[in-house]
Design goal:
single chain, about 220 residues, mainly alpha, two-stranded antiparallel sheet, 6 helices, 2 strands, about 5% strand, elongated
Length: about 220
């Protein structure tokens, strides 16, 4: 049964349109390959789908650039001239922008001012004043942050100092503070101090400490 003639018009359904594009693209590339093999032709096909996805076919042993160069030679059409002119125009604009920026930088450094009239000088002055204002505001903000950080550090150091002073005051009020733990043997500490005094007196009988009482010596060593 022969198929009916297909009406050539845009396919509205996006899915059907994409399927048809894929099938016919593959068929076109197949025909181009057959032309290349059967007829020794050089074929180049460049296609873009509705989503701007590139598909291309190029005959073996050649490149797209070679095909385009051959087209220019045969048809006497310069394909690249328009593109080259656009590139030159873009280059000219970039160079002009670069010169203007260099001039503006020099003017802000106090150079190239002879080319400016009175109105341009006033505008430059106003712009520089606004810039200085922003710089000063940023500077003061940075200084404020540094001051706050320094205050916090000083506060921390003061707290540490207060804790140390408090601990020293506790030691002064209680000579035994920190020397004997709650679970320690206080008698053993006193015995050690007494033995130390006896040994000291035996080895150094003429030392000034032998005249002191035992309680004085114990107190001395506990405080030390």
């Amino acid at each position: 049964m022969a198929r009916g003639k297909i009406q050539i018009k845009r396919i509205e359904n996006q899915t059907n349109r994409q399927v048809t594009y894929s099938k016919r693209r593959n068929g076109l590339f197949k025909k181009a390959h057959e032309l290349t093999v059967l007829c020794d032709a050089r074929v180049s096909i460049i296609m873009f789908s509705s989503s701007n996805k590139l598909h291309e076919f190029i005959s073996p042993n050649t490149t797209t650039k070679e095909i385009i160069d051959l087209y220019q030679t045969v048809s006497d059409v310069d394909v690249w001239s328009a593109h080259y002119e656009r590139m030159q125009e873009t280059k000219r604009k970039l160079l002009e922008t670069n010169r203007n920026l260099r001039t503006q930088i020099k003017q802000r450094l106090g150079e190239c001012l002879d080319e400016l009239d009175i109105q341009e000088l006033r505008s430059l002055e106003e712009e520089m004043e606004n810039t200085f204002k922003l710089v000063r505001e940023r500077k003061f903000k940075s200084l404020g942050n540094q001051i706050e950080t320094t205050k916090k550090k000083n506060k921390s150091q003061q707290d540490i100092q207060k804790n140390l002073i408090h601990e020293l005051e506790l030691r002064a009020e209680d000579p035994h503070y920190g020397l004997v733990d709650n679970g320690g043997d206080y008698d053993s500490v006193l015995g050690y101090q007494l033995r130390f005094h006896q040994n000291h007196h035996q080895h150094y009988p003429n030392h000034a400490l032998h005249a002191a009482s035992a309680s004085d010596i114990i107190t001395f060593h506990l405080l030390e």
